[in-house]
Amino acid sequence: MLEDVPIHGSRLDAKNKPPTHQRNLSLDFRHVTGANGPPAGCGHQRNRSLDSVLQRIPEDMTPTSPEGAPLRIPGDVPAPRLALPPEVPAGSDDSGIHTPPDSHDEERPTPAAARSRESLDSGNPEDTDKPPDPPDIAITQCVPFTTTKTITATDTANHKDFLLRLFESKLFDMSMAISYLFNSKEPGVQTYLANKLFSFPHEDVDFYLPQLATMYIEMGDVAEVLRPYLVHRCKQSADFSLRLAWLLTAFGGDAKRSRATKLRDSILAEEIRPAARRGHHRAHSDASALRLATPSGRHLGDLASGRAFDSGCLCGEQCSCGAPRLAPQTQFLTALTNIGRRLASVADKERRNGRLRAELVTLDLNLPARVWLPLHKKPHYVLRIPPHAAAVLNSKDKAPYIIYVEVLETEGHEPLPPRLLPPAPPAPHSPPIRHTKSEENLVPEWPSLSMYSAMDDVDNSDCWSHDDEDACFQMCPPRTCPAPDCVSQLSVQSMQSVQSVQSASSCGSRESLAVGAGEVRRRLVDATAAPPANAFKHDPHDPSAVALKESWESKLSRMRATSPYGCLAGWRLLGCIVKVGDDLRQEMLAAQLLRRLQAVWELERVPLALRPYEIICLDRESGLIQPVLNSVSLHQIKKQSGKSLRAWLELEHGPATSEGFLRAQRNFVHSAAAYALTSYLLQLKDRHNGNILLDSAGHIIHIDFGFIFSISPKNLGFESSPFKLTNEFVEVMDGENSDMFAYFKILILRGLIAARKHCDQILHLVDTMRMGGQLACLRSSSAVSSFRARFHVGRTEPQLRQLVDRLVSDALHSLSTRLYDNYQYYTNGIL
Questions:
Q1: Which of 454, 489, 507, 549 is disulfide-compatible with 484, CB 3.0–4.6 A?
Q2: Which residues contact 570 (CB under 8 A, 6 or more apart)?
Q3: How far apart are CA 678 and CA 443, in angstroms?
Q4: What is the DSSP letter of 388?
């Protein structure tokens, strides 16, 4: 029997004065306060979450009526007892129960589970239909004041809210976070998911950056919760800042003061940048001396100055001088895209190559610089762009070109090596080097562009004088020597470099331009040696064929041997395709889908081989593409060799019974099945032999995904085949009745079964990018629904087997495939 002892106030005082606190038996404080605050006469307001309240209620509690009288509970119902964890003390300062004060109460942090629930419930404070589920108790029945209530104590982990349990589980990944963030309309859920982004690895979030940028542009409620994370990442990384700014430019609307435009302008204006370091403040004498040695950034964008990409910062990894952080990179990429625009006006392809090399010579005079290629993930700086290694790719209307960039992988704080410039006579009236007090005077006069215009066909990258050897020795000091300060090392090395250049130019002898005897011997051997049987010849209509056919290993060793920076330990060679005049946003989406499909097949252990490559959209009509190494197009193979696909593989890998050919044949089948299924799911169009590559290992690789889903070249819908499968492909597989051809169909079936198992991860990529109608391939109302239908989720495995047999038969006997190849041959000369 419970004792008649009131807990709140006294029964003697209850009738004489108004109560100062009223107890709510349902433990749901939200309907007490409501939207307009607590009821009149109540001197207590809830100032903490329900979770913290329930965790602090004492174990032995006797409920009372609103008038302060003890409430009797029938004998068959036990008195409510709340089981609390041992580490949580009893008592609460906001439940109305008088408890002794705790001196450490203010310092106790809120439990993580309570914070999580607060973020989930914060979006609907007026929603009283479903009471909150506290972590330490379960409320099984809520009744009015005059009825009975039952409270049962359970374990915290077993009775969490299902949505919160999903968000906190190990299975919750970035893919699910993007899906819930896009579909949820609850502000509390959106806030929780936006905060959850901080816990994911950066590479996982960066993969979905186009989707995040699209939601920031098109969804105002999501933009508010995403902004803190985006600003945080922009302060951490300059590369992330530029990627986000480019996506906001590419997918942003035309409104001048939209939220996307404001964020992009803030990023490019460098209003969002890391805070300056706090440290020792130099005296005025030290600052004046340092000011003489600190270069300025006033030459940014001026290619004739030799410092077009120099911000003037010598701080290293963390800048505290306020120098531009993003401007050098934007100027570097602008210079690359401007070259592509100027090349498009040149009609002849041979003249395009000469113009490209002349433009790169001018650009190369401003390197090394603290700029980088966004296609490469590791931190690095650009050292040099050899002009004569670049080539204009085969295109009828546009002028995309490929360059090979020498970079130095670094941690971000190493000084740049000195610039190696051609010998030039000293400028008249210039002071001697020993009397120079400013670094600007250390730069010699740049040679004019006219001296390179007559040398377009000479490979200057292979000429290495003895002066280059001395400069290279200066750049590569012994590793046992301690590294000097960044500012002093850069100034001293620059002074030594310029002194060597001026001494060589003042001498005027032929010895400084001579080439070593070993180098001459190597060139003679290379010139007189018979070319391999599968080597490509120079084609004036396709100058890039020779450069693309050379193996990457051979190109890497040759260019490192002839590079003045090749002795550096962090030297790397990277490829990059600059494309101007095409909308790369659809190709970027297709590359995302290919990468996700490849991850699914690897997870399900299906041996299908795709080659996804990186695509960076700079704006709506230009971007950077990662080249596929060691590969040439089927058109180039047919034009250069005149052989069929199988004959070419036998020439490259050996007879049909050799181990090399069998390995290449297996790689061909794995990749052909992967791209056949991908072409069917994404409805790839424009599949001529110029857009299909064959690498040195025998893999088929599709490129140029400008026409996917509901669009086709000139919107004619001419290609009606599920995917491209020609008789040449089947010949490589030993014919229709061979085991390899049957294996080809089995791989397509296994890949489709695995893809439909994870189709939700693939579909929400497309569904998110549909907002705003920015992509032409998704403007059709049935684009996403048709894409979902092609996974055939409702079909059984025998039905899928019949479907695959029908798709392969339709593709092999498709008349539209042969007609489209003939159309490309007669209009563009593509075999």
A1: 489
A2: 380, 408, 409, 410
A3: 54
A4: G
681-736 pLDDT, tens digit per residue, is 999 999 999 999 999 999 999 999 989 998 888 777 788 899 999 999 999 999 99
Instruction: List the helix and strand counts (H, then E) for the chain.
Output: 31, 11
Cβ neighbors of 440 (< 8 A, separation 6 or more) are 295, 296
Please list, in sequence order, all residues whose beta carbon lies within 8 angstroms of the beta carbon of residue 719, skipping any fewer than 6 positions away. Answer: 685, 686, 687, 712, 816, 817, 820
Using one digit for the tens of pLDDT, what is the confidence trace for 741-792?
Answer: 999 999 999 999 999 999 999 999 999 999 888 899 998 889 999 999 999 9
Q: How far apart are CA 9 and CA 62, in angstroms?
A: 13
Q: How many CB atoms lie within 10 A of CB 672?
A: 26
Q: Residue 548's pLDDT is what?
A: 87
pLDDT tens, residue by residue, 243-286: 999 999 999 866 656 889 999 999 999 999 887 655 544 444 44
Question: Residue 756 phi/psi, 5° resolution?
Answer: -70, -20
What is the average per-residue pLDDT within 462-491?
A: 41
pTM of the predicted model, to two decimals?
A: 0.71
Q: How far apart are CA 187 and CA 190, in angstroms?
A: 5
Q: What pLDDT score does 537 carry?
A: 81
Bridge partners of residue 575, in order along the sequence: 404
Determine the angle formed by the axes of helices 585-603 and 659-682, rounding to 10 degrees.
120
Calpha distance 94→177 (Å, rounded): 35
Q: Which residue, 208, 165, 577, is CA-closest to 393?
A: 577
Strands 615-617 and 151-152: unpaired
From residue 301, alpha-carbon distances to 298, 333, 452, 492, 657 in Å are: 9, 10, 21, 26, 58
Query: Considering all CA atoms of the chain, what is the largest pairwise distance in Å, rounded to the nearest integer?
Result: 117
Under a CB-based contact definition with an 8 Å cutoff, are residues 606 and 775 in contact? no
CB 706 within 8 A of CB 582: yes
CA 429 to CA 435: how far, in whole Å? 13
SS (H, E, C) 784-813: HHHHHHCCCCCCCHHHHHHHHHHHHHHHHC
The CB-side HSE value for 96 (13 A sphere, CA atoms) comes to 24
Quick one: tokens of 467?
């002066």
